[in-house]
Amino acid sequence: MTNYDIAIIGGGATGLGCAFDLALRGLRCVLVEKGDLASGTTGRYHGLLHSGGRYVTKDPQSATECARENTILRRIMPHCLEATGGFFVITPWDDPLYGDQFVANCHKTGVPVQELALATMLRREPLLNPRITRAFEVLDGSADSFLASQSLALAAKACGAQILTYHHLDALVRDGDRVVGALVTDLRSGTQQRITCAYVLNASGAWAGQVAAMAGVKLSVVPGKGTMVAMNQRMVNTVINRCKLPADGDIIVPIHSVAVIGTTDVQVTDPDNYPIEAHEIAFMLAEGEKLIPGFSHYRALRAWAGVRPLYQDRDTPSAAERDISRTFKLLDHAARDGVEGFISIVGGKWTTCRLMAEAAANLIAQRMGNTQPCRTASEILPRPGAEGHGFYYLGQHLAAVEAQQAAGDLICECELVTRERVEAALADGITTLDDIRRTLRVGMGPCQGGWCIYRTAALLHEYQAQHATSHPINPNQALRDFLQARWKGLRPVLWGDQLRQARLDEQIYVGLLGVDRLPDV
Amino acid sequence: MNHPPPLNQGLDQCIKCNICTSACPVAAVSDRFPGPKYVGPQAQRFRREGQPVPDDSVDYCSGCRVCNEVCPTGVPIAQLNARARAQIVAERGVPLRNWLIARTDMIGRLSAGPQAPLVNFVLRLAPTRWLAHYILGIHRHAPLPLARRHTFRAWVAERRVQGTGNREQGTGNREQGTENREQGTENREQRTENREQGTENREQGTEKSVLSSPSRLTPPTSTPPTSTPPTSTPPTFSPHASSPHASSPHASPIVYFHGCATQAYEPHVGQAALAVLEHHGYEVLVPPQNCCGLPLISNGDFVAARRAHLTNVRHLLAYVRQGIPVVGTSTSCTLTLKEEAPEILGLHSADVQLLAAHTYDLFEFLRLLAEAGQLRRDFRPMARQLPYHIPCQYRAHRIGQPVVDVLSLIPGLQLSLSPAACCGIAGTYGIKREKYAIAMAVGQPLFNFIRQSGSDLALCDSETCRWQISHATGVATKHPIELLAEAYNLSYYQS
Amino acid sequence: MFRCFLAGRPTKNRAKIAQKNMEYDTIVIGAGLAGLTAANARAARGERVLLLAKGHGACQWASGCVDLLDAPEHPLAAIAQLAAKHPLHPYARVGPAALHGGLKLLQSACSKMGYPLVGSPTQTLRLPTALGALRPTSLVPLTMVAGEARQLAAGGPLLIAGFRALRDFFPPLIAANLRTQGFPATSCYLTMPNSERQRDFTPMNLAHLFERPAFRENVAQQLRAHVRQGGYTRIGLPAVLGLHHAVTVVQALQQTSNALIFEIPTPPTSIPGMRLAHALEQAARQAGVHIQLGSWVVRGSGSQKRLETIYSAAAAREQRHHAQHWVLATGGILGGGIRREPQGALRETALGLPVHSPSQANEWFHPHLFAPGGHPIFQAGIATDQHLRPLDAAGQIMYTNVMIVGSALAHCDPLREGCREGIAVATGYKES
Predict the structure, then answer these.
(1) Is residue B277 part of a domain?
(2) Which residues on A lie below 8 Å from C266 (Cβ)?
(3) Concatenated DSSP letters for A417-463?
(4) pTM beyond 0.95, yes or no
(5) Number of CB pairs < 8 Å for B and C?
(6) Complex ipTM
(7) Claim to verify: residue A246 and residue A133 sit in the same structural domain
(8) CATH number at residue A127
(9) Do A397 and B46 touch (CB under 8 A)?
(10) Mean pLDDT by 10-residue block, N- to C-terminus, for chain C (432 residues)?
(11) Domain containing B22: what range?
(12) With an 8 Å Cβ cutoff, is C268 touching chain B?
């Protein structure tokens, strides 16, 4: 049994932000996450650092929050961000009158905006639709949410927080009207432990309803499925938004070596199980064509979906998904449901994760009599490893490989991951192929693991053979699981070159390596 | 879409299969070049205009296009690399050495002419080579061509003044060609239409002497009634307004693009080309022209390359608008006019396309004549067996081996084909100090092949390849057109 | 190497021959195993052949072994059963004679290169992969035969050795997986012998290095030391032991190390696959076949059910080709002969022939990647009659002078059925 001030449920951006904020105030925190960091919605979003422009009309509060947090995040985690800038463009399919309204609302909500000459827009992004009639520049960016999560975790740990990944929350422990702890199981060793704490903070996003139910609290969080498609290359280097009220498939985000188009918004029942429909993909590619003619003829890499945690207030039980506020809600269940020691933070978006953490931490700190102010807006987050300076830029890894003359030592060739980096990650205690993917982007490029996952699995095997590992992973099974997980994202976009690639990958794994013939052990 | 898809879209076709890397002649011999897949479609995903260039190793790509040739998925690897190199140059400027060696026409102008003996002497002095090696970065063993006192254009002008040419020579052979002419009859009908387009133009031309009228050195003033845009490639052979030797009493005009090497170093190649074309009854025009721009492209100087190409378009447009074909003996020049300049430099205007559609490698053109039954067969037998290397820049035309197809018509001549991918020189690549050794290693299989052939003569279409082969093996090299002229018994040396 | 003499054949009617230099009896489209087999077979029958291809064929992506059918014991018998059960299967279309002919052609071309293929269509061999799995096949190069499962089971201790710098071969994992299957395997990494190369040890670069006596002697000495220490009787090495002289390299290594050496194919580029392609290319060139790479066939035209002309993309304009007969060996989805449009239908890329696909598009992909039997889309291809002539949707012959060979054929997933090479050589060999 371990004693903490606060147990945080959920290792996404919000939970990690809370852990860091609370730990920074000197409170003893433990964070419980059933998978790897950012393995939920945080790791499944398109990577947009909002300027706020998207919300200026429909959700002004969110717009203002985004604009403020955008500035703060640029200061505290530049290495996780690429300062791409963003355009809001009016295409022939959009209401031309919205432009003026958009600008006015930007001014109202404090979102910096500037109209751009169309010639300038086309010079900067030559592939944009020449029939675009107006363009506005905002401070959008792209964000590596995996890296940001790691940085937050590092920072939280440095302040004494404990982060338990691959720990399943079995139950919340109640003592009368009070939540006093949690039962969690280490999924790798199978051992259960009991955590006692003064507060449980539910930061589990789309899973918040499930967690709340463990405390006997009814909390309605609608998992809103957002489907995205990653394209093989960045046809734009600026975030491109349609200048209209938020809708499906109206954003293209250049992030790392790909461009992501998103998203859809469909209410689903189960945050762990939702299909990606062919018509969603078709719709998004068609929308992409409006922004970039020829868009659908570029190679699509994979499709995936994440589930937004959209909080439905009790007063407005049947709101359409897009109409549910994108701002967050802090729920004190003592006041709301009569359950002490239990607080939920729901809704929101990645860009405002720090603000959400601040609000939650303020409440808990106040309750616990901690008078430390929030400092997360000025604490520069540490960088995992020692890569890069300032903002991330696209050529960063290419330049590093060039400097080390390490092209022949690339394990993941598509995403330029050297053997050295894979081995360092293994030594860092990252043990699953999927975690290596999230950390290093191994297997996220065009070949979707075709070359690199065999190599990575073999390196994992060698590492395990040389170092005492408490719960070694079977490399064969890991290899198959990884490829199966990639297949899930590939299936909706299998045509043209990506289909050909998938067949080559099959030729490698079935035709050459016989991975399907290996005994399971 | 009128515009071709952006070049970057081609990288989507890469399935990372490593076929290019295994075939790359540079990666096979050097650690400096991580291979076409790596520097091409892979690295391109990480390059961004306006940001510092993250990689220099792309500069070790020789541009030989073997990767393009073997790639089963159609990735324009060499073009991606050329663009990446240009990005380096755009950021850092052209190094003096590259600036200099990319200006082949300027160098030619400075060295060929009355001063040639002196220039040749000075450039071959050990101290000069030493200085060029250590100060400038031009390898001291790199092959240097001999500049000529009499340039090709000077010869053409002289000939014009004299009002003589190979014409007489050719006339004597006419009768021998008659039997071949019969074979061509069936093809004539489909060609009539083409001929009509050219009629107006042909009437302006002089009949008597090929280059007798000075006005023929400048573009004809009239513009054609309708110039068919060549954007869709002609499915059947239509050498535009030209007609073969026998079918018309008027000589049909054809433009010869000589390139820098013929002009300054190898006028005999141009003379042979003129002799063969005139032998087929063509009136060969040699309008003003400049460097095709390939050395500039290879050295990343796209600004100058665009200028060079657009100037050529200006020079040649009036001809191609009338349907007059442009033929060249330098395979890399013709490739540049046909494809490299439009594709790599992103020049896609109708005029650029028109020139591309009318440009032929000379043997490509002759093979078309042969297919139409219009190539003369008055060969004298040549009981020779010669090694032939098809330059990578010729293979990049993707038209098979026209030289082999045409020369195999010569009785007794046997060609043994080089199995080698590249001679290594790749234009200006192999003369650079840091790349000379790579180029020599790349060419090793070819050099072995030539040496083992035991022949005292080798054939190759590209001038720099010829210089490289002779430099490495000591075996004399000729352009195949020279051999063809000999087979026609045409004495073409006029200087 | 590929020296060939094209012109100057002594003949009475020179002009006719010469004219023919640009005219072909048969043009084969595609440079994979099927296309190369077809080119050789037709040249051997006296035809003038042009082989036209986009680039190098799919051989470099395969093991370099000849898979006939994934059958437990007797591939030939299993093929006969398959043919009886599935009359539309390419094996059923071509019959056993074509398979035998094609195999003989391939074996003869390889033998001439000093690189014999051993085994028999009546026996299934199992060879270790670069993951340590055992994969069934039928004919294997001499350089791999010592790794056959029955031999491994009978022999003594086994060493799997590689180089750390080769990123596509991991001895510890291979040995571990072999051990779990009952083979006494140990692994080691060898020290890379000195050469002017410091990095970029691709399979191709290593193959070049192994052709140097000093390099392989160094490796052989290292192996010898391991054998002395561990008493190994067999050593598995990555299949990079030379490109043109692999048998010589293997023999040299065996002699010095005192153990039997066998190669294990690596992920692409597969050097053994490349050796097969080289053997067939060289045989084809010697038989007078012209080979033109880098040329994409973009369309064809004909009349009265005869294909007369095809056009390949070239600089500035298309190149036109004429022939009497045509062999389409452009491959399936992997080879590029068949392509799926964005979210759309399948199309045949060279001539626009109709593609037969086995089910509705929403059933093309199984939810599980390794689902037994594979994904239905990969059974798609061009339907043919028994002479391999392409059929349209109504079952009518589209061109009487076109044959479809290899992975472009419908009713077969060569990869999952384990018959890639068998189908290629059998259909490629078949007479029109």
Answers:
(1) no
(2) 512
(3) EEHHHHHHHHHTT--SHHHHHHHH-TT-STTTTTTHHHHHHHHHHHH
(4) no
(5) 155
(6) 0.95
(7) yes
(8) 3.30.9.10
(9) yes
(10) 33 40 89 98 97 96 98 96 97 96 98 97 97 97 97 92 97 97 97 93 96 97 98 97 97 97 97 98 96 96 95 96 97 97 94 93 94 95 97 96 98 97 98 85
(11) 8-93
(12) yes
